[in-house]
Structure formats: C-alpha cells, structure tokens
C-alpha cells in the first residue's frame, strides 16, 4: 500500500485528460479571437479558469497543503500570490505610490496560506477583486504600445507578463493537485 494518491480523472473519452473536451469550460473550438489584445485576453481568461479548475473540489486542508520542504507553495498560496501580483501590476501602471501589500512583505502570501475556510474564502474574494480592478485599469488603455507608470511599461509587456505568470503557476498547480489527490491536468 502506498501513501501516494492514485491517478484519476473525470474524463471518459481521453482518460489522461482532466475533463472531456465537450465538458471543458475553456473555449478552444473554432477560430481564435481576432487581434493581439483579444488574443492576450483570451489566454489570460483561460489560464485563470485553469487555475480555478485545479483548485476545484478541495477543502481548506487540501488547498493549504505544501508541496515539498522547504517550499511553502500550495494551491491556496498560489491564489493569494496571484491576488498580490494583480495588485502589484496596477502599481506598475500608476504614477502614484504603490498600493499596500495585501498579505504583508516577502512570502506572506504563501506563509499565511493556512488550512482555515475563512482564509480560503478571503483568497478567492481577494483574487476576484484584484483581477477585476487590474482588468478595469487596463481597459482604459487599449493601445498595446502605450507606455504607463513611472517606468514607462508598455501595456503589451504587462499583458504578456500576466499571461506568463498565470501559465507558470498553472504548471505548479498541476503538480500540487497531483500530490493532493492524484488528479492530473491538461
């Protein structure tokens, strides 16, 4: 008998997939969106949804479960971290002072990811709020070449960085979820 979780999937058509293609809420059928900005938004939306799918159906203890020592990474920590970076991105495009940290300095987003339902609920609320605020701030700047903030970051660079950040952390989430219950991603 092993302590390792058994691999499993909801998929019936392709057993190595997370979910059957017809049931996947990420729209990948048909032509992609027209234009660079729409494409970036589409990728960002799908990675955000992928992260939520990786966390779906887990309780507070499972979400807060750490990967391997000395890492403090957990699925809950990733939710908190992404809320924090969404907030940071707004500071990048602002001429004012940076927004205060949500969770404190350094790795507080991961360190404070404890197995309490109130912490889980707050993480989801924080992430939704920060995503909406950053989306709204960037919606005012549809020109991808426009440079914003004190450092003159191009909107395009920020959008690509957002996609990259979520994509990287979805890879982490794949491994974290597999350690929790054996479920593998797609």
Automatic annotation (TrEMBL):
Protein name: DinB family protein
Domain of life where this protein originates: Bacteria
Organism: Streptomyces siamensis
Lineage of the species this protein comes from: Bacteria, Bacillati, Actinomycetota, Actinomycetes, Kitasatosporales
Pfam families linked to this entry: MST
Region (Disordered), start-end ranges: 16-37
